[in-house]
Amino acid sequence: MRKFNETHQWVDYEEGVATIGITTRAVEKMGDINYIELPAIGAVFMQDDVLCIVESAKAASDVLTPVGGTVVEVNMHLEKTPELICASPEGEGWICRFSEVDTDELENLMTEEEYEIFVEKEIEGEE
Questions:
Q1: Pairing of strands 60-64, 50-56
Q2: Please, what CATH class does the domain formed by 2-126 belong to?
Q3: I need a labelling partner for 62 at 20 to 30 A (CA). Which of 35, 51, 52, 124 fits?
Q4: What is the pTM assigned to this prediction?
């Protein structure tokens, strides 16, 4: 089950593990990503905490975690090839995985359909 927050992060929750990343829309807004500061394994986050910092040609951006939990894995490929986030933001460019997730927090997030409508409205507001 994939869910989204309003700051363009996604979470896939399956079998007690949450995989977290940024959306294609976030990448479009940031431009080419050249560095990512990954969270530490074992770090504990609350929902909406700053999970990591992504640097692009445009600016450094905070990535907020859509759910709280404990980091159990990070995508080490991003250290050497941060552009992987741009190539596959909602696939191989995932940032980290959490355990100990409060599944109630998933209820506050948007479904894929709700997120698509949210993005459409956001784009219309920029025009």
A1: antiparallel
A2: mainly beta
A3: 124
A4: 0.93
